[in-house]
Amino acid sequence: MSFSLRLLALGTALAIAGAATAAAPQTGAAPPAAKARTTQQQRMVDCNQQAKGKKKDERRAFMSSCLKGKGAAAPSARQAQHKQMKSCNADARTRELKGAERKSFLNDCLKGAAAQ
User: Fold this and answer.
1) Closest alpha carbon to 114 in 69, 77, 86
2) Contact present, 89 and 106 (Cβ < 8 Å)
3) DSSP letter string over the chain?
4) How many whole angstroms from its chain centre is CA 113?
5) Residues 36, 67, 44, 33, Cα dihedral to 10°
6) What's the Rg (C-alpha) of the chain?
7) Could you give the CA distance from residue 111 to residue 19 in angstroms, rounded to a whole number?
8) pLDDT digit string (tens) for 12-35?
């Protein structure tokens, strides 16, 4: 019986080896084509590229808006205010305003921006 078991084991090993060889890709054959991305997957790739440089909450808000298909997210009110403050400060600096004049100018500049 031990000869029969050896013969059975050898036959099984050869069958497994033959199946593995048949399933192995042939050398020189073209690699399988990359699976096409779905619309949502492509949108994720595009939004990730646009979100470079954004951090934490700003990135989260942008990605949420972008993935919903709303395009680039509009800047938040805080970002708009910050941008306007930088602009008004730069104008005050070029005009070389100091003290009360500077304060009055900044106040008017920022109010004027809010009205627009």
Assistant:
1) 77
2) yes
3) -HHHHHHHHHHHHHHHHHHHHHHSPPTTPPPPPPPPPPHHHHHHHHHHHHTTT--HHHHHHHHHHHHTT--SPPPPHHHHHHHHHHHHHHHHHHTT--HHHHHHHHHHHHHHHHH-
4) 32
5) 0
6) 33
7) 79
8) 777 777 666 665 555 655 556 667
Q: What percentage of the chain reaches a pLDDT higher than 70? A: 72
**28 phi/psi in degrees, rounded to 5:** 90, -10
Distance (Å, rounded) from C-alpha 84 to C-alpha 111?
10
pTM for the predicted model, two decimal places: 0.35
Q: Where are the domains of the chain?
A: 38-74, 75-116
Could you tell me the CA-to-CA distances from 40 to 5, 18, 62 in Å, in that order? 56, 42, 16
Contacts of 51 (CB under 8 A, 6+ apart): 59, 62, 63, 66
